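Summary for the steering committee. One of the milestones for this cycle was to obtain a three-dimensional model of the protein with pyridoxal-5'-phosphate bound, which we needed before selecting residues for the alanine scan. The sequence and ligand used are listed below.
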Amino acid sequence: MKEEKKHKMRPESLMMSYGYKPELSEGAVKCPIFQTSTFVFKTAEDGKAFFQVAYGHRTPEEGEELGLIYSRLNNPDLEILENRLTLWDEAEDCAVFESGMSAITTVLLEFLRPGDTILISSPLYGGSDHFIKKILTQFGINVIEFRAGKSEGEIYKTIEDSGLSKNLKLIYIETPANPTNDLVDIQICKSIATHFSQLTGNHIYLVVDNTYMGPVWQHPLKFGADLVIYSATKYIGGHSDVIAGACLGSKELISRIRVLRTFLGNMASPNTGWLLLRSLETLKARMDIQAANADKIADFLNNHPKIDKVYFPGNLTEKDGLPYHTKVKQCLTNGGMISFDVKGGEKEAFTFLNALKLIKLAVSLGSTESLAEHPATMTHVDVEPQLLKELSITGKMIRLSVGVEYFEDIIEDIRQALDKI
Ligand SMILES: *Cc1c(COP(=O)(O)O)cnc(C)c1O
């Protein structure tokens, strides 16, 4: 009995059952899709009590669970999904959204006000970059940017040189960065947040978009992040059949985010929740295969005469200094994303992409099938040309999301497509 108590199960063992009570659903082994907009209250008193908690008019009593009200506020598929997602990041709470972008925009809108400054790493996902630079700025929010891979001293200098440090409220980073796989050290960003929090008296939140590593390969909360965000469309969903997002962190922060979600109305649907519950059962198994495949494919690319450069965390060595140490510290694998430059330019890259047979020519990532795309003209076309150049996102770059196919079949497809160049 004692032994049993001590044993802590891994998240992958709990993904089939955690948080679901079959007796509440006719004994169904799987959580049904609760395709309903509203829920019947047993009594008027219950309805009153639920609303008090949902709208923050009363703090719930010890052990009191929020009753089901209306699917814009809560729904069993979403609640079970949120509970299961907390296990990977060991987070107190989670809120799921109808897309990764809605998770990102809701967090930024909750924690930033006109006159505030946001510090971002670059490159960022194109949608995040657009929202921060082209939309948040219209609401009087200032943006400071630092390049992934910069040292702590260089980041301090960027902040101080901007003259905007007094109003710094939020640090938003993405690591590894898309599509270059550049790493940002989460712990360093936390110490920057702490430093400027003390200096300014602001509480500076650290938010990490962890989509690229997914909930299995990197746990930003452990390195001091306040919030971790996912496009659940990617590894969490993992089958290219659903758009969704998630945000995890403390109960206090997530309850603020959940209130804004209620009023923006950008929660996920019950059907999306159900699809993601299904996806989570195989998350670890899928990602194990993807990471193992990626290592083998990177090896092949590293040694191919038609490849100029491979951007892959597994290629970092001690000689690379900070990025290498960051990787060893915060990444549990090299990930499943590889970018590479073919010799030549856009023409050669397009010839390669058009020749692929098994690998699909499509944006998105983290799915069971391998996907390849051309960042400079597709996902990152909106990024300013000068920045693209600085980040070495050029015409010859291909981004590959490694799937769960047999690795030799993926390699063979890449080999025959490179032969066409
Ligand atoms: C895809 C992606 C997003 C946006 O997510 P959606 O689910 O498409 O809204 C955000 N960040 C990263 C790193 C992504 O890859």
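Key point for the committee: The mean pLDDT is 95.
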